Amino acid sequence: MNPPFQCPLRCPVCGAPLIPGEKMYGCAQGHPFNVAKEGYINLLLSHQRKSRNPGDDVDMVLARRRFFDSGAYDPLSEQLCGLSVFNPPGPLAVLDCGCGEGHLLGALSEARDGFFLGADISKKAVQIASKRHRQATWIVANGMRQLPVADASMDVILSILAPRNLAEFGRILKPDGALLVGVPGPNHLIELRRQLQFSSGDFKDKADEAAAKCAPLFCEANREVLTYQTLLGREQIADLIQMTPLFWRSGPEAKAAVMQLEQLEITVSFTLLTLIR
Fold first, then answer.
1. Beta partners for 208?
2. Rounded CA gap, 120 and 140, in Å?
3. Helix (H) / strand (E) containing 132
4. Per-residue confidence of the chain (277 residues) as pLDDT tens digits?
5. Fewer CB within 10 A of the end CB, N or C, for the chain?
6. Is the peptide bond before 186 cis (omega within 30 degrees of 0)?
């Protein structure tokens, strides 16, 4: 941990502060949590999961890592890093809840100083994130249950295309903190969804719906829409299908046909909402 931040992690068993060590985190009550060889800490208790390996499986995680590495979503990383909430003087404490394989939080941790914490229920996703982005702290945890993070300890919370636990976000954020919510923007992946005979709605109401759901605790302070066209090759198309709900919600024949395409130009669109108390 780099000053001025103290470890914000809390024991998932008793709630006491976790004291970091090189190979183990522990609390005053004697509950130990080993640091895995990849560098992450598993703070997911058995009763906080519905299966032995919850969250995205290895195929989805690896597809997402390959797709991000291809550069197709680089404008999203650049837009996120350039948001004003990340550019005040001094370091920030940032939580990415539902961090996946860690690309977005990793990009932030490389762009500025601070304490960066990624949490995901998928052990495989956290393993992959922690192996590459050593400057951040990574934990396996269920973001839809009580998170093992201290009250009022985070300056910014990210929730990009992920479920939102608003009560926990309100508890963990500092009084002047900000919640960043990312949802599909107008016509996101519409060409691919049409090819898959999937819903071709334009997602125009997604941002308003997200803001309304957050309204009991947070109000919208800023909204930015990112939209661009990009040409995907066959491997990128396959990875994009694998890493999104399109994989589960499309028929096998439609997926097989799309997999044969040599290339496809698609619309990428995200809406980024900055919300404050």
1. none
2. 5
3. helix 123-132
4. 344 578 999 999 999 999 998 899 999 999 999 999 999 999 999 878 767 778 899 999 999 999 999 999 999 999 999 999 998 888 999 999 999 999 999 999 999 999 999 999 999 999 999 999 999 999 999 999 999 999 999 999 999 999 999 999 999 999 999 999 999 999 999 999 999 876 656 788 999 999 999 999 999 999 999 999 999 999 999 999 999 888 877 888 988 899 999 999 999 999 999 999 9
5. N
6. no
**CB atoms inside a 10 Å sphere around CB 68:** 22
CB atoms within 10 A of CB 159: 25
Query: What is the Cα–Cα distance from 117 to 105, expressed in whole angstroms?
Result: 8
Question: Is the separation of the CB atoms in 157 and 169 below 8 Å?
Answer: yes
Q: Which of 85, 104, 83 shows the shortest CA–CA distance to 93?
A: 85
At 88, is the secondary structure helix, strand, or coil?
A: coil
pTM passes above 0.90? yes
Dig out the tokens for 240 from the structure. Answer: 């994009």
The length of the chain is 277
Q: What span, in angstroms and rounded, lies between the C-alpha atoms of 109 and 111?
A: 6
Quote the CA–CA distance of 207 and 186 in Å, as a whole number.
Answer: 9
For the beta carbon of residue 22, count every other beta carbon within 10 angstroms: 5
Which neighbouring-strand residues pair with 159? 181
- The CA–CA distances, whole Å, from 92 to 2, 112, 153 equal 11, 9, 10
Structure tokens at 250: 């499309």
